[in-house]
Structures are given as structure tokens and as C-alpha cells.
User: What shape does this take?
Amino acid sequence: MPSRRSTAPVVPDAHASASRKIRSLSSVVNFLRFGRSATSRSSDRGDLDPGSLRKRAKQKVEDQALQCRNAELERENRKLHHRLERAELILEIQKKAQGLLRELESPEDIESER
Assistant: This one.
């Protein structure tokens, strides 16, 4: 059974912080639009249940860990891709240098190696 407490939002006093005033005014706007406060709707859905809050907090931590790991793997992937490009370039240069050296060798040098 729903609680009998008032779902009307509380208007902030003059000494409240700016963020508190904004939250309060936002809840007033929601109350005027939808007839109930956002907190009341959250409570009805079970979003404010301690078990639900712990589960969401745990999920948030897991999501953040996955995002960090993903960013780390993307950095490593870029680094390895760059190393691969450099290695391929070095191999290409070595092949060209080997070809040029063979062209510079005299035919007698080639015969003597055989």
C-alpha cells in the first residue's frame, strides 16, 4: 500500500545551495507536469530499494571497469598496429636494399659466390 506522505516537492529556502535549488525547482516542475514527484515514482518502481541501489552501484562499477579495460585495449591495439606498420616498412626497405645490392655486385662476384 502506498505511503500517505505528501508527494509535493519542497521549495528551497534562501540559504540552500544553487544545485539544491535547481533540484528542488526541477521536482516542482515534474510535480506540476505529472502530478507526482520523481522520488515518489522511483520509490513506486522500487528504484530506491537498498538491494536495487546496491545492484545498480555494483553494475556501475563493473561498467566503469569494462570501459577502462576497453580503453586500455584500444590504446594497446593502436600501439601494436603502429609497430606492425613500422615492421612492414622496415621489411620493405630491406628487400629494396637487397635488390639494389645485387644490382651493384659485378657478375664475377655473383659467379664466385656459387
In short: The chain has two domains: 9-48, 60-105. Residues 50-104 form the longest helix (55 residues).
